[in-house]
Amino acid sequence: MKSVLYISAGMIALAAVSTGCVSRGNNTGWEYAPDMAYSKGYEPYNQGDSNTVNPYGMSMREPVAGTVAIGKEATHYPYDNSADGYEAAKSFTYPADFEDKNERGKYLFGIYCTPCHGANGGNDGEIFKKGLGKPAWPNFQDKYIKEIPVGQIYHTLTYGKNNMGSHAYALKPMDRWRVIRYVKQLSGAGAEPAAAKDSTAVKPNN
């Protein structure tokens, strides 16, 4: 009798586990122990409905406004994304230790700028040709590009402006300055930057 009971209990347990694991088509099946697969703890980069403390169920907290991550002090840009910040950026200029070995600025321009602005800044890149955007000036030789302060170009690369999005995800601070130098070369405004010793520019990472 005991053997029959043991066999019956074993078959029921096996059936339950098998049923919980079965999945067909779009049916993901049943989960036998979901608490073993999904942590109840608030883990970084894990968003769940159980977290009611933070907005949107986020497990991570957003950094305090105005703070800079450890090790990223050199990449801090002091002006916010606003009209006042754009105006203040006029005083922001090349860092004193600026260098552009092997024409890296030209190389990066070819990757990130040519699709819109063209190889020589003629605003004849494939994106503009297809009518997916419209530049605010005819080409890089325009007076606007020749005279615009380099700090405002840096501001635009950092935050984006009009049809142009932010390039901060792709260009490190020093690389932004290298691209700016090449843009100024294309405009005919001069090849070498005049890095002011009293510049408000922070020392960027290479």
Structure description:
α8 (150-159) crosses α9 (173-187). Strands 1-2 form a two-stranded antiparallel ribbon. It folds into two domains: 2-57, no CATH class; 73-187, Cytochrome Bc1 Complex, Chain D, domain 2 (Orthogonal Bundle), CATH 1.10.760.10. The chain is elongated and about 85 Å long. By secondary structure, the protein is mostly helical. The chain has nine helices and two strands. Residues 195-206 have low confidence and may be disordered. It has helices spanning 2-21, 34-37, 83-88, 104-112, 114-117, 126-129, 143-147, 150-159, 173-187; strands at residues 160-161, 164-165.
Structural class: mainly alpha
- Biggest β-sheet strands, sense, barrel: 2 strands, antiparallel
CATH class of the largest domain: Mainly Alpha
Side-by-side strand order of the widest sheet = 1-2
The backbone outline, from C-alpha atoms, is elongated
Share in β-strands: under 5%
Q: What is the third-level CATH name, the topology of the largest domain? A: Cytochrome Bc1 Complex, Chain D, domain 2
- Summed up, the helix count is 9
What is the helical fraction, as a range of percent? 25-40%
Mean pLDDT: 78
Count of distinct structural domains: 2
Q: End-to-end span in angstroms?
A: 79 Å
Please provide the count of β strands: 2
Query: What's the architecture of the largest domain in CATH terms?
Result: Orthogonal Bundle
